[in-house]
Every structure is written in C-alpha cells, then in structure tokens.
Predict the structure.
Amino acid sequence: MPSHDVMPNMELYQPVQVEDALALAGRLAERGWLLGGGQDTYGWLKDRTKSPEAMIDLNGIESLRGVREIADGIEIGALTTLTELANNPLVRERYSLLADAAVKVASPQIRNVGTVGGNLVQDVRCWYYRRGLSCYRAGGNLCYADTPQGMNREHAIFNASRCVAVTPSDTAPALVALDASMVIRSSEGERVVPAEEFFVGPNVDIRNTTVLRPGEILTAVRLPATWANATFYFEKVADRNVWDFALVNIAVAMRESGGVIQDARFVAGAVQCTPRRLVDVENAVRGQPRNEATAQMLGTLASQGAQPLNHNGFKIHLVDSLARRALIA
Amino acid sequence: MNPRLTRRRFIKGVIYSSAAAMSGAGLYLTNAQSQSGAAVERLISINVNGRTRRVDVLPQETLAHTLRYKLDLTGTKLGCNRGECGACTVLIDDVTNYACSTLTHSVRQREVTTVEGLRSPDGQLHPVQQAFLDELGPQCGFCTPGQVVATVALLKSNPRPTREEARQALSGNLCRCGAYDHYLNGVMRASGQLS
Ligand SMILES: Cc1cc2nc3c(=O)[nH]c(=O)nc-3n(C[C@H](O)[C@H](O)[C@H](O)COP(=O)(O)OP(=O)(O)OC[C@H]3O[C@@H](n4cnc5c(N)ncnc54)[C@H](O)[C@@H]3O)c2cc1C
Ligand code: SF4
Ligand code: FES
Ligand code: FES
C-alpha cells in the first residue's frame, strides 16, 4: 500500500458562512469531505485510502468557533480547537473534565489546529483499515484484526460485531460523561442528538462511527448545567504521553452530598467502538462514600462481560483499575 | 478565553470577512476575481517571514511542500509527513503548527514564520538559536529547526517557563538523537534562567 508525500488532486472550498458550507455539503454529499483541523484527514488522503473530490474547509466560519453561555449550560462551537477548549475559562471553571481530556490529545501542535468536531467525528485507528485493506468497515467481508495472527492489542474488549475497532477520541468519553448533546445541521434543518446516541457501534452501522449523514455538519456541542462543577476524574493510559491514542481512558463525573455519591457517570474510551458507559459501576457507587473501601468493593465490575482478543487482555485490568482510581484519586 | 486569542480571533474574523468575496453561490474565503463555484484559485499570496510571496498552490498542497519546493525554504524539515514528529514545525500567527499537516490555502490571511525568519536582518542568530548552540542542543540537527521554532513560540507567550512547562511545550517535537535535555537547557538559557 503506497504512501505518498502529496495528496491527490481535489477541489477546495473555503466558505465563511455556515449556510454556504451546508449547501456545499448537501450538493457534494459523499464526494465532499468536511475539513476541521485536518489532522485525521490528511493521512487518509496521503495514503489514498479515501478519495473525496473536494474538501470543504470549515475554518473560515467564525460562528462555528468559541464557547458561549446558554440558558442551560454552555455551547461549544464545533470548530473550536482543542487548545482553545483546554484554555477556555468557562470550560476550566465548570467542566474541567473536558479541558483535562482535550489537553491529552496527540501533541501541542495537533491540539492547536485539531477541532473538537474533528476529534469526535474522526475515524477509527485500526491500521488494517487505515492502510486500505478491504475489511468489513471498508465494505469488504472480513476483519484482519480479529484473526489468530491479527495484531489487536489496541482493539475492543466489548461489543464487537464483526469489526473490533475502538473509539480513538479522548474528548468523546468526557462529553458522554457530561451528558452533552450534539447540534447537527443540514440544509434541511437542525437536529440535536444526545452524545450517547451520537456514537454508533458496528452492530448499528459498520461503516460510520457516528449518526452523521452526508450533507450534515456538526455545528456545536452543548453541555447542560446538570454536571457543571461536579467532582471529575479523567485519566488516559497510552504507550507514550504524546501522540499516542489511549489504550484505555476514563472520564468520570460525580455528584457528592452528605459524604456519599448521589449520582455518577463513568465512561471508558478505547474499549469498544463507542464511549462505554459503565452502568454497573455507576449503580454500585451511588449512595457510597468516595473512598478506598468503595473502590475495593468495585472489584472487577467495570470489566464484567469483556471478551478480550488475543493481545488485549490487559485492557480488562486497565478498565477495572481506572474505575477504582476515580474513587480514590 | 485567553485575551490574546480572543483578540487574534477578532482581528482574524475581520480580516476573513473583508477578504471574503461574493460569488454566485455565496460568501467564500477567496480573492475577488473568483468566479462561479467558488473553489479556491491557485495563484495566491502568502506572507512568509514578513514578505508577501506570490505562489502557485494546488488546492490540496501542504504548507511544508510550498515552503520547501516552491519558496526554497528548506529549513522546515519533513520527517514523517503525518503529524508525528514535529520536524516541520512553523509559526502561524505565533502559534506552532505542523507544516506537513496544514493546507497552504488556509494561511492566506495569516503570518507564517519559519526558522529562516528568526535571525535578525544583520544575520545575527535569534537568542534561541544562540542558546541552543551554546548548550550543544543539536546532535544530528534534523529536528533542530522544529525545536527552535517551538521554543520561540513558547517564550513569546511565557518568557520564563519552568523546565516542566518547557518539556510540555516541546513535547510535540521528536528527537531521534534523544538530545531532549540539551534542548531544555537551551530553553532555560534563552529565557535567561541559566547563566
Ligand atoms: C499523530 C497523531 C496523534 C493523534 N493522537 C490523538 C489522541 O491522542 N487522541 C485523540 O483523541 N485524537 C488523536 N489524533 C486524532 C486527531 O488528529 C485529533 O483528534 C484531532 O482532534 C482531529 O480534529 P481535526 O479537526 O483535525 O479533524 P479533521 O481531520 O478535520 O476531521 C476529522 C473527521 O471529522 C470530520 N469533521 C470534522 N469537523 C466536522 C464537523 N464540524 N462536522 C462533521 N464532520 C466533521 C471530517 O470530515 C473528518 O472525517 C491524533 C492524530 C495524529 C495524526
Ligand atoms: S477491526 Fe474493523 S477496521 Fe480493523 S480490520 Fe477489522 S473490520 Fe476493519
Ligand atoms: S513532518 Fe510534519 S510532523 Fe513530521
Ligand atoms: S538532534 Fe538528531 S533528531 Fe534531534
């Protein structure tokens, strides 16, 4: 599979109004490619694994940038960069979970241009797929990762359905934990989808990791006040601190009162194709104090039901440890 | 929000809207001659190291390609060409970017600074370059332009960083020779914290 220095010929559009971007996205449909920071995009194009006819660069659309207060919480424009997100006072004050996740993405240079929209919509990192093999996710009829010889150390331990790739995003688990909703526009109108329903696994759609359809643009992410200033915990385990995707990450939001956890959302990334709510853990910690004893009580609850592949059994221990650590850190 | 960022965004917003041209289909970030369809034109001007350069740029061309092969600015290195090494680091409006993963068309209304743009007009090295030499930062030297540029960006926003802050700021710049500590000494020297 060749890799090239240069990308193949294509058109580039740089609209400055969202309506023009929507019209283009609608007109070009599958032939067009939305461009945020491009940090997930250029590899696909240099490798010739994906070949759109045109890119629609969203960076000139000022209305898609920045963080605003809304009646019930805040709204983050989809083109806001990860660096802006990590430094934004509103985000840091009230939703530091998301700032902590954003700052763990890739490297400083990638965060300076990588957008929150691109981080959520980025495709899976399975190398077989990214190198252009015709696997299930690429429309073929086998999975190269899930074979006796397959290299699947980074792949899923839950909910595989033919494809065993995992969600690569560091911000996605944080947004699910914060009960965010995604604002999606097309030239036909707008729909708002809860973060948990925005991401879809291969059992629902093996070709796409989100509910976005051609012609649609993710314009903003809304964070409700429900989890503002809660107790938060984010941790990412990766081989290196920079550039590497999570082996497992965890985002946790907890409401404590009277010395016990009233409510909590525990979400793990990189263990299945979508951010995984650890519902059993959430139920177990409700009404318990946030301490070592509760952490011990969790035992292996976070990994219940895991089905590891040949090389990723370590993720079982990781997800259990991370869930426990959220209670003692 | 960081006041500097807000201001920059604001100014950029103004520049964007004034640079936008009406076409049949709407407003696009493109020059005034642009005709129907409003895809970008190839002949554009970009500001590199304080000079305006006219250059023929493909729509999908990366800034690293334009700099190295069209403007003869080969100080910007290509290591991986996919955002994984930092050898191609340049400043765009004082912010570090990987030139291998930036479209040249996206920098039209912005200021690009490469390692060639750092020394003063009389040829004197930038204090960061001098400090890196004094601390024997470079070994093979391939990653050095990127390390220099990343350090210049850091010292603009944080003139006296701690060693840990410097480590974070340079964390997107790989050095295969493993000269990290020497570079960090260089950052400390350039910021006047090492005599
Ligand atoms: C070396 C390297 C390391 C990385 N490490 C990490 C990591 O540790 N953690 C992590 O989370 N990610 C990582 N990434 C992935 C990715 O580059 C970043 O997450 C970045 O945030 C992607 O954002 P972008 O705006 O650059 O995406 P783009 O490349 O612009 O877009 C990605 C995808 O989303 C679509 N898209 C973009 N914006 C929108 C929108 N508004 N509406 C609808 N669709 C949209 C694009 O069409 C494309 O399909 C890494 C990438 C590289 C190259
Ligand atoms: S894990 Fe998914 S993406 Fe990877 S080879 Fe299997 S089907 Fe393809
Ligand atoms: S060449 Fe750009 S990051 Fe390696
Ligand atoms: S000095 Fe050789 S790569 Fe850094």
Remarks:
- The first strand of chain B starts at residue 20 and ends at 23.
- Chain B has a mean pLDDT of 87.
- Strands of chain B lie at 20-23, 26-29, 43-48, 51-56, 89-92, 95-98, 111-113.
